[in-house]
Task: structure prediction
Amino acid sequence: MGWLESLSAAQMGLIVAFGAGLLVGVERERRKGAGPGRHSAGLRTFLVAALAGAAAQALSTALAAVVLASVAVLACLSYWRSAADDPGLTTELALIATTLIGMLAVSQPEVAAALAVVLAGVLALKTRLHHFATDWLSETELHDGLLLAALALVLLPLLTTQPIPWLGHLSPRRVLLLVLVILLMQAASHLGQRLLGQRAGIPMAGLLGGFVSSTATISALGSQVRSGEVPLRLAWCGGVLSTAATWLQAWMIGGVLAPSHVGEMAVVALVGALVPCLIGLALWRRPVGDEGALPRVPGAMLRLKEALQVSGLLIAGAMLVQWAHALSDNGLLIGVAVAAIADAHAPIAALWGMREANGLSVDELLHGVLVAISVNACTRTVAAGAAGGLRYAMGIGAALAAGLAAVWAWDALMG
Result:
């Protein structure tokens, strides 16, 4: 393979251009058709276009511009000739794109090769992409996807990264990142329920729903148990798995708010999530007589109001914990416990923000997280009883107690 290292940039570019033209050309040749109505561009045309672009780029920029303009004119003529039978522009645009990829191959062969693979893949997946866009994807899901893209690509870059002390050392950009994480988990839960069957749908919905709100997920499954829509064992499974998501999300929040310290809680989060995952797996593997109906997938993939409410709790919890910490170290844990009654994620986000600002030690961070999740476990058990009855609450409470016992024991052993 030493001969590859001896090639000049122009020679390597021509080789990559040849490969790109061959890859895209083979795909277009298969769809070219036969007879008088066939497309004018096939394997040889795409090979020539890619090599012409690379050769022209290697010689001069002016010649490359002439070649690109010539290919564009030929593509326009080809479209004018076949527009009556096939109004699509895919082949003509692919021909121009292949020429550009050939030009790019001279200076950046790795990028050109990657683009060629992507282009060929998009062309080959025509039927599946068409089915996804017109049949599988609903109008509501399309709008929700556009909203998510607007928040991530338009609004997020505009927000400042400067931490605000009274906001628990959170910056506006990190607050929006938390909202985006919640929305992404909502989308994953929605799509998981659509893609999976009945038996896997409820546990997966429970796990992914726990990233939004474990309390809300446990309550929703409890209501379905009371109404007879979901078997008790599967509801236990989904509810228990939602508690595993609480530990994972506590760690993920750290990745957003305190990336330089996120490793400090990795083992604790793993231990906290492992116990409910094992319990949930045992419940799922044990067969039941009637799996029940899969909960109806909601019409909206994203629930912005719910995400904003959760982010509001995060901000309020951050402010409360910051104020309590200003009083004393004991006040910190009291503030965390009070804030965790409603939601564990709010005080945890505040703790991570303070840790990033070097306002907390590692031990204070871990003990605060343990207190927050322990207090909120009581809230989730009460919510389970109110929604699904005593048996449902006993199962959820036992799983929560087992998980907390394991984590507190690990903390004591390591401390």
About this structure: The chain has two domains: 7-132, 138-414. The radius of gyration is 28 Å. Residues 290-299 have pLDDT under 50 and may be disordered.
